[in-house]
């Protein structure tokens, strides 16, 4: 059943590759919006450009966490940085077989992911200050 979803999702993405079909639904009667894969669902709704923008945000987040982890000397901060990084990476890996992080029926799951991203970025801003280094950016 999921293979059929993936096939239909790829057909929809191939018809509307750049900007997707939007949040209103598919304009074609023969295809539907909905697949059990976070990234394919994003590509259906927002297009390839939306998925690339999402991946740029995630890569930037992980790069900042890596920098904060390397700068931190306090084990408490190190545990928080690694925990928030692992939570986001786990959610994104789980998104390969799940769609709840980008489904409008489950907004609380999207809020949870973006809350972790916000907490991680706030922590990245605190770590350099704690070590006496200037904050960049």
Kindly summarize this structure in a few lines.
It is built from 4 helices and no strands.
Can you describe what's shown?
By secondary structure, the chain is mainly α. It has one domain (2-130). It is built from 4 helices and no strands. The protein has helices at residues 2-15, 38-71, 75-94, 107-130. The longest helix has 34 residues, at 38-71.
Keywords:
137 residues; 67% helix; 4 helices; mainly alpha; elongated
Summarize the helices and strands and which ones pair or pack:
Blueprint: H1 2-15, H2 38-71, H3 75-94, H4 107-130
Helix pairs in contact: 1-2, 2-3, 2-4, 3-4
Q: Work out the helicity level.
A: 55-70%
**Number of alpha- plus pi-helical segments:** 4
Largest sheet: none
The run of helices and strands is HHHH
> How many strands appear in the DSSP assignment?
0
Class by helix and strand content? mainly alpha
Low-confidence stretches: none
Determine Rg (CA atoms, Å): 18 Å
Distance between the termini: 47 Å
Rounded average pLDDT: 82
Percentage beta strand: under 5%
Name the shape in a single word: elongated
In total, the number of domains comes to 1
């Amino acid at each position: 059943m999921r293979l059929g979803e993936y096939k239909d999702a790829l057909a929809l993405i191939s018809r509307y590759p750049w900007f997707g079909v939007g949040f209103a639904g598919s304009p074609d009667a023969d295809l539907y919006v909905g697949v059990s894969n976070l990234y394919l669902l994003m590509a259906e709704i927002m297009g390839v450009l939306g998925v690339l923008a999402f991946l740029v945000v995630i890569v930037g987040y992980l790069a900042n966490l890596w920098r904060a982890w390397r700068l931190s000397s306090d084990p408490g901060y190190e545990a928080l940085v690694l925990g928030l990084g692992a939570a986001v990476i786990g959610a994104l890996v789980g998104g390969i077989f799940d769609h709840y992080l980008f489904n409008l029926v489950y907004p609380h799951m999207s809020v949870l992911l973006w809350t972790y991203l916000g907490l991680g970025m706030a922590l990245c801003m605190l770590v350099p200050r704690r070590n006496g280094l200037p904050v960049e950016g």
